[in-house]
Specification:
The complex is a heterodimer of chains A (225) and B (444). Helix content of chain A is 39%, strand content 24%. Chain A has eight helices and 14 strands. In chain A, helix 1 links the parallel strand 1 and strand 2. Chain B has 444 residues and is an alpha+beta fold. Chain B has three domains: 146 residues, Beta-Lactamase (2-Layer Sandwich); 80 residues, Helix Hairpins; 144 residues, Heat Shock Protein 90. The two termini of chain B are 61 Å apart. The chains are: A alpha/beta (225), B alpha+beta (444).
Chain lengths: 225, 444
């Protein structure tokens, strides 16, 4: 993927660029808002990573300018303002995702990849697959190797989100945001326990796990083929 | 001078004086009409009628009849003493009781001095008179005494001017005193504001207990100052405790990094410390923003039954992992006007604590029920509870009941307490037999 990083702090910019390149992406760095706007207009990017605190200007202004030109490139906002209100402001301004500083590099990479490969939504999908796992979205049932597996509603939503993101790492906070409909901050890592319970149900009697753990980052489900 | 006019007190005093003098003049005018103008008009009517009658008598019955009539009129005792003077066509004075009159005939009404001495006593008279010259050259002056009316007129004129001057002075003085009193109270408010600006947040506007507009203004201002002081105090407390509580994780972070630099420790320790610092920072900031009111609560009608079910659902795996039995008694159809995210977060914190402090194999119960005058959310555990002496302090920032016994930074209950306060709801902590219980009541 080709990623435009608009970030004025050279250390953060280099750190992020290095991580992205290691993950196999091409990164263009813009050091301020003006340069960022010029770059965004000049080349097509898959994802734009935008720091909110830029010298002399709020990154949200840059975002609004980009959106005003009809550019719909997915934008992830990085911000030292991590509050729920600020997050909502960022998403309202046209952002697609919002990550407060400080962040783990792996979290940023996972989210950027999530944004980049988010294709156009296909409404007609009624079934999701990963290996021998089949999720029936209409009947809200899960089968593995033809065997029906009982999951709770919440577990169903976790699994659906993971399988929809198959091949990409999903972090714990991404799960929290997409599966639980509350803006909150669990003080302990409860998400792991939900996944581990789901995992027990899915893998009973099978050798290959459906959900793999990516150490220190989150989870991944293998793509269907 | 300009400053004097700019002062509200001065303008008030002036307005007051103007109104006062204006109403006084109106009063004097009414009195003048009553005691001077109306009697004068009556006297005029009488004289006019008499003059017309007497003129007729002269023309019809002749000079002798007129003289007889005039003498009879003079002799009659009347309210207003009668005056007359008749001069025949040859210029002889036939009869007169006026001491003197103008040589030339006067047109319309005249006022003639008619002081008379009766038995040596001087009497002041003033005649309101009509003068008439007949075609044959005879002249008849008919009048009535209006001296008492004139006297009243003069007395009123001189009296009114004195009263006007005195009243103006009194009004100015009264207005000045009145506005000075207002000005002084305004100045007191200003002085308090200056003290507060100079840094003395504890200063309050004095209230004199009269309950008037100024007292109400002072009460409002004092409430505002109280709120500001509270906010500043909250910010100060946060920065104090942050500075204090951040040092330990920072020191540990530094130690881990030093070990890693020396090629001994694991960098993962340092990362964990950094995450912990971020968590503390986020939690402190969230509470502070709620406390100072910079994040407004978003009230909405919330399905509390569903919300509490979700909270229980969220913590069930964590409880089961430790063999803790998590049960919930949540009535169906509970609705509450509240901030959904905040109440979820607070309820989650309560459940998190209960599970954290319960021993393996313990029991945690979440209640949601309607009482007669309140909605109750309660969490009960089988943990060790809190020393009774600590109960008042457990919601304070960074308080931890059993340091080291469970992970945490001591901010969970602070947030619950803040959320409860923002919802005007009551939070009660108590040790129960074999456990600990939190009751959170939202008044209906």
């Amino acid at each position: 993927m080709h990623i435009l990083l608009i970030e004025d702090d050279p250390r953060v910019a280099d750190h992020v660029a290095k991580g992205m390149r290691e993950a196999g992406h091409i990164v263009t760095i813009a050091r301020d808002g003006r340069e960022g706007l010029l770059r965004a207009a000049a080349d097509p990017f898959d994802v734009i990573v935008l720091d909110r605190m830029l010298p002399h200007v709020d990154g949200l202004r840059i975002l609004q300018t980009i959106r005003a030109t009809g550019d719909v490139t997915p934008v992830l906002i990085l911000s030292a303002l991590g509050d729920v209100d600020e997050r909502i402001k960022g998403l309202r301004a046209g952002g697609d995702d919002y990550l407060p500083k400080p962040f783990a590099l792996s979290e940023l990479v996972a989210r950027v990849e999530g944004l980049g490969r988010r294709g156009p939504a296909i409404a007609e999908v009624t079934e999701l697959k990963s290996g021998d796992l089949v999720i029936d979205l209409l009947g809200r049932s899960v089968t593995r190797g033809g065997q029906r597996i009982d999951v709770t509603q919440r577990e169903f939503r976790i699994l659906e989100y993971l399988v929809r993101s198959a091949g990409r790492v999903v972090t714990r906070s991404m799960l929290l945001e997409h599966v639980w409909d509350y803006n909150f901050d669990p003080q302990t890592n409860i998400i792991d326990q939900h996944v581990s319970r789901l995992r027990q149900k899915l893998d009973r009697g099978f050798d290959v796990p459906v959900i793999e753990t990516v150490r220190g980052t989150g989870y991944v489900v293998r793509p269907a083929t | 001078m300009k400053q004097l006019f700019a002062s509200l007190s001065f303008r008030l005093a002036l307005t007051y004086a103007g109104l006062f003098v204006g109403s006084l003049l109106l009063l004097v005018g009414a009195y003048y009409t009553m005691v001077v103008r109306v009697p004068l008009r009556q006297a005029e009517q009488v004289v006019q009628r008499e003059a017309a009658q007497l003129a007729n008598i002269y023309i019809v019955d002749g000079e002798a009849a007129l003289v007889t009539r005039l003498r009879a009129r003079d002799a009659a005792v009347d309210r207003y003493k009668a005056f007359h003077a008749f001069v025949d066509r040859k210029g002889r004075v036939v009869t007169a009781n006026l001491p003197s009159w103008p040589r030339a005939v006067f047109q319309g009404w005249g006022r003639i001095e008619a002081d008379t001495s009766v038995d040596g006593d001087e009497h002041d008279f003033e005649a309101l008179a009509l003068d008439r010259r007949f075609d044959d050259g005879a002249r008849l002056i008919i009048g009535r005494d209006v001296d008492n009316i004139s006297e009243r007129e003069q007395a009123l004129a001189s009296g009114a001017s004195v009263v006007a001057v005195v009243a103006l002075l009194l009004a100015l003085l009264g207005g000045l005193l009145m506005s000075r009193a207002i000005g002084r109270r305004v100045d007191r408010v200003a002085a308090t504001a200056r003290d507060v600006m100079a840094g003395d947040m504890s200063k309050r506007v004095s209230i004199d207990g009269s309950g008037d507009e100024f007292d109400r203004l002072a009460e409002t201002l004092n409430a505002m100052l109280q709120r500001i002081e509270h906010s500043m105090e909250a910010v100060r407390r946060v920065s104090d405790s942050v500075a204090h509580e951040m040092r330990t994780p920072l020191a540990r972070l530094r130690a881990s990094l030093e070990d890693a630099a020396a090629g001994q420790g694991d960098v993962a320790d340092a990362l964990a410390e950094a995450d912990r610092l971020t968590t503390i920072f986020d939690a402190v900031l969230r509470i502070a923003r709620l406390d100072t009111g910079s994040r407004e609560i978003a009230l909405g009608e919330v399905d509390l039954t569903a919300l509490l079910d979700d909270v229980a659902d969220f913590y069930r795996p964590a409880a089961e992992e430790r063999g803790i039995l998590l049960t919930s008694f949540i009535q169906s159809g509970l609705f509450l006007r509240c901030d959904r995210d905040l109440v979820f977060q607070a309820a989650a914190n309560l459940l998190d604590n209960a599970i954290k402090y319960s021993p393996n194999g313990g029991e945690v119960v979440l209640y949601g029920q309607e009482e007669t005058a309140a909605l109750l959310i309660a969490v009960q555990d089988t943990g060790p509870g809190v020393p009774d002496s600590d109960l008042p302090h457990i919601a304070e920032r960074f308080y931890r009941a059993h340091k080291g016994a469970a992970p945490g930074v001591g901010l969970g209950l602070s947030l619950v307490e803040t959320v409860a306060r923002l919802h005007h709801s009551a939070l009660a902590f108590r040790n129960i037999d074999g456990g600990f219980r939190v009751d959170w009541r939202f008044p209906a």
